[in-house]
Amino acid sequence: MIISKAFKYFIFFLLISSIAQASDKFVIKLATLAPEGSVWMNAFHDLNKEVIKRTNGDVRFKFYPGGVLGDEIDMLRKIRIGQIHGGGFTGLGLGMIYKDVLVIQLPFLFNNYHEVDYVLKRMEGRFRKGFEKNGFVLLGWSDIGFVYLLSNSPIRSKRDTRGLKFWIWEGDKIASAVFKRLDIVPVPLGLPDILMALQTGLVDVVFSSPLGAIALQWFTRVKYMMDLPLTYAIGAVLISKRAFQRIPPNYQKIIRECANKYIQELNQRIRKDNEKAKEIMIKHGIKITRPSKEDVAEFKKMCNTIAKGFSGKAFSREVLNELMFYLNEYRSHEENK
Fold first, then answer.
1. Are β-strands 224-226 and 287-289 bridged in parallel, bridged antiparallel, or unpaired?
2. CATH H superfamily, domain 12-142+233-273
3. 50-75 pLDDT, tens digit each
4. Strands 59-64 and 231-233, bridge-based pairing
5. Minimal CA–CA distance to 146: which of 182, 114, 190?
6. Non-local CB neighbours of 289 within 8 Å, separated by 6+ positions
7. Could you give the CA distance from residue 55 to residue 164 in angstroms, rounded to a whole number?
8. What pLDDT band is residue 7 in, cutting at 50, 70 and 90?
9. Contact 259, 140 (CB under 8 A)
10. Which residue of 22, 190, 247, 328 is 20 to 30 Å from 173, comparing CA positions?
11. At residue 99, what are phi and psi to the nearest 5 degrees?
């Protein structure tokens, strides 16, 4: 008799459920693209130790770092079939779950982390509800940092981008629109493929936070960094709502408290380490290019046009209006000090 694949999955999950009930232990399986040994993974391990201690070993995390389960599209697919329960996501994965969060990553939106923190604090309730509506629990925002262009040819202006092969993350709508505006035909690749693509010359240009470039070893395969923050890259730790609700409420509370503690510490560390990472790359021989004020103004004007075009498509007009309200509110307070 031929057994259907769906029936096999059904039997598998029944077995998993019975094991969990019999042992009264809860193992939360989280995947991430962050490599083992990185500041992100170190924080996750510290989080796990405290959760184990405070739940007397009844709850623990099992991590799958470094993209061993694939990119974020693969991670989401595995969460939906119950193979894992959550992950540490970048904006790409977050946007696939709840598109309005992509508004945070508009190019040239934020000038500094103070603005980021002010806006996220006031919009967190909206974003939490959005994730929950789509089946996920937000444990915390995990900084990636401000993103820069890294290349094997110097880039200072739009003219310098001609003929270069830019990497684009598969499914990144905002980056795709920016490249289209620059008349660039990008090379779509998953994150685990980038180092090899740089080694073989498949791509000439990538974009990353300085710390991310070091953690992923991309900085060893590029020669230049443009000293212009393109966007703030957001990250977050999410757990499937269905999996989280199986955990007793007292343990849910402990998980939330521990996640809040260690993710906040992680963010402060990442911000400091991103500055140190710039110095490391310069010592490694990477040359810094600086666009002129006129070129910066051209980049920003172009991206403002793109943002208006995205409103109502990649994210709602309502969320953009709310974000701009809080951002202008913060800037007004700063100007009046």
1. parallel
2. Bacterial extracellular solute-binding protein, family 7 (3.40.190.170)
3. 999 999 999 999 999 999 999 899 99
4. unpaired
5. 114
6. 154, 155, 156, 224, 225, 226, 227
7. 53
8. very low
9. yes
10. 328
11. -65, -30
Per-residue tokens: 246: 């199986």
In one letter, which amino acid is 335?
E
Written as one letter, the residue type at 5 is K
CATH number corresponding to 146-232+278-335: 3.40.190.170
Mean pLDDT over 233-238 rounds to 95
Tokens of 9: 């999955």
Q: Name the segment(s) of the chain with CATH classification 3.40.190.170.
A: 12-142+233-273, 146-232+278-335
Total H helices, total E strands in the chain: 12, 12
Contact in structure between 180 and 302 (CB atoms under 8 Å)? no
Instruction: Give DSSP secondary structure letters for 256-268.
Output: HHHHHHHHHHHHH
The alpha carbon of 127 is separated from its chain's Cα centroid by a whole number of angstroms, namely 15
- Of 335 and 7, the structure prediction assigns the larger pLDDT to 335
Q: How many residues can be counted in the chain?
A: 337
The separation between the first and the last C-alpha atoms of the chain, rounded to the nearest angstrom, is: 77
Interval 263-293: pLDDT, tens: 999 999 999 999 999 999 999 999 999 999 8
